[in-house]
Amino acid sequence: MSWFKKVFSTEKKETLNKGLEKSKTSFFDKMSRAVVGKSKVDEEVLDNLEEILITSDVGVNTTIKIIERIEERVARDKYVNSAELDKILREEIMALLSENKTEDFENLNLPTHPDGNPHVIMVVGVNGVGKTTTIGKLANQFKNLGKKVVIGAGDTFRAAAVDQIQIWADRVDVPIIKQAMGSDPASVAFDTVQSAKAQGANVVLLDTAGRLHNKINLMNELSKIKRVMQKVIPDAPHEVLLVLDGSTGQNAFEQAKQFTQATEVDSLAITKLDGTAKGGVVIGISDQFNIPVKYIGVGEKVEDLQVFNKAEFVDSFFKKNEDEK
């Protein structure tokens, strides 16, 4: 239990608990039906658990891994009481997350770069996943840490996209670089990093077009944006952040697959977890793609985009179980 004894920010933890309420309620309702009348974990219970995990959008491959781990424990311990299943499941999910690249991000600290260049984050994802909102919330959080932020309105294919990100830039009071709708996104990227460097900015948040067109076109477009930025900052972008809508469940897996095939994704932000019972998608995506989940969205407020911590997440996901003991 030492994993879960860590002292969390009370306010942040309460928001996380509330944000995962629908997911954990749905999960535990299914779990209680799976073990009713059962005194031990047997083949039927494991079959039911497998179905629960899959329908909670953990994903088939990750579900199989979890079930195999529990089967090993049942075989080793000979007898496992069904009342212990929540605890065992919690421990095995935590262990699974600990084995891949899913890190515990404590804060928004940025690495320093040669010649004082800003840290460039290229944000990718399809329309409607919360990409613009994520950029706005990150800009606000970086600014509150005393960082100088510049936003680049690189989604030039939709007038609404530029308007939306302008609203966020005005709201959080950070400069934005934009061009007319239909402009070359690479040109916007060039202007953005050039301006940020000239201003002595600490971080660049560059939006990109949210079209999930065919992989070759997507790859070419993102590659061009990178090449153009590197004329100003040779190692830019320093991070490619893929934003996924957690409420879409398995569709988020498909989007992750498409974008990871088209470009090198360094980190993930999974949004809209507060409005869905599909919170298990965080577990599956972090396991299957072996890419760090860096941020999760658990509410509408600016501060409800949280830096992801796997111990906090698992603790909150299983909080109802502890409260009922």
TrEMBL record:
Chain residues that bind GTP: 125-132, 207-211, 271-274
GO molecular function: GTP binding; GTPase activity; signal recognition particle binding
Keyword Glycosyltransferase: no
Gene Ontology cellular component annotations, sorted alphabetically: cytoplasm; plasma membrane
Main subcellular location of this protein, as a coarse class: membrane
Superkingdom of origin organism: Bacteria
Boundaries of every SRP54-type proteins GTP-binding domain copy: 292-305
Protein EC: 3.6.5.4
One of the GO biological process terms: SRP-dependent cotranslational protein targeting to membrane
Compartment(s): Cell membrane; Cytoplasm
Topology relative to the membrane: Peripheral membrane protein
SUPFAM superfamilies: Domain of the SRP/SRP receptor G-proteins, P-loop containing nucleoside triphosphate hydrolases
Enzymatic reactions: GTP + H2O = GDP + phosphate + H(+)
PROSITE patterns in UniProt: SRP54
A Pfam family annotated for this UniProt entry: SRP54
Subunit structure: Part of the signal recognition particle protein translocation system, which is composed of SRP and FtsY.
Family from the record: Belongs to the GTP-binding SRP family. FtsY subfamily.
Known function: Involved in targeting and insertion of nascent membrane proteins into the cytoplasmic membrane. Acts as a receptor for the complex formed by the signal recognition particle (SRP) and the ribosome-nascent chain (RNC).
PANTHER family documented for this protein: SIGNAL RECOGNITION PARTICLE RECEPTOR SUBUNIT ALPHA
Name the UniProt record assigns to this protein: Signal recognition particle receptor FtsY
